Fold:
Amino acid sequence: MNALTVSLVALVALTGPAVQSEDVPCRTFEEIYPSGRELCEKMWDGAFVYETNLSAAFTMWFFEAENPNNKVSERLGWPSADDCHLEYFHKESPGPEPDNFTECHPWKDYSCCHQATVSSVQNIKEAYGKEWHWDRCGPLSSACERFFVQEACLYECEPNAGFYRKFPAHIYNESDPNHNKWQMEGMPIRADYCDAWLRACRYDRFCAVDSGSYHSCAREYLEADKLTTGEYGVNAGLVAGVVVALLVGLVLCGTLGYFIYRERKGEPVFDKLET
Ligand SMILES: *[C@@H]1O[C@H](CO)[C@@H](O)[C@H](O)[C@H]1NC(C)=O
Ligand SMILES: *[C@@H]1O[C@H](CO)[C@@H](O)[C@H](O)[C@H]1NC(C)=O
Ligand SMILES: *[C@@H]1O[C@H](CO)[C@@H](O)[C@H](O)[C@H]1NC(C)=O
Structure:
């Protein structure tokens, strides 16, 4: 019976994933994005713009005590960032965070995000739903993953990001289903930052749908996940695997029973081996 249990588990493991397999294509970053420009602009569906004029470009990370993006905003004619504008997990207005605010540390003193939102890489990765996990094509190298964490920190914590809300308060129409309060558009990002991102991720793999559009990928993953995950949260692939395993198990039991029956009757199916 132990052997049967083991083979059932093995069969489920073997047949389950085959049924679940998603048809969302994966390629290396260097195959998907010809340059840092496409990575910043295409991957984020226009939220960011590749900017070679560095005095007019924001950075997704910094080490200075004072946030250098404030100066950039000033040069671009924005007022000081006293509100967060974007609405996802964001606070209403920026402020300091406790000492354990380490993952997005550049923004500790003046942040639009709560510590709870960005307390760990795992938290950040899982905050937006399974379809947005950045490692759906396999684990990323730590060098590459770092950039996804930095982008998430910029999005959740950077007060200046709020100036680039796609549907700002004066345009946002609550009854228009195409409008939202979370999307960004056209934030100029330092070209060298985008180039570095591609260098770090070059050999890592990412979803290649629609030239590597993160939004299009998330849409496809959502569909794929619906197919493999039933209405009640039951994994259809796993269920199919269990059914196949049970059928195989039944056939095995039947065969074994037949052998035993023949053996008892003194008509073994296999003659005893001479020793
Ligand atoms: C770079 O951006 C700054 C700030 O907006 C602007 O004053 C300057 O003219 C730009 N330089 C070039 C070469 O476009
Ligand atoms: C971080 O510090 C805050 C305030 O001191 C506390 O509420 C929170 O539980 C701490 N830990 C984490 C993991 O956020
Ligand atoms: C807001 O959106 C709704 C639905 O699309 C539309 O009927 C209405 O005219 C819009 N209001 C304004 C002020 O644009």
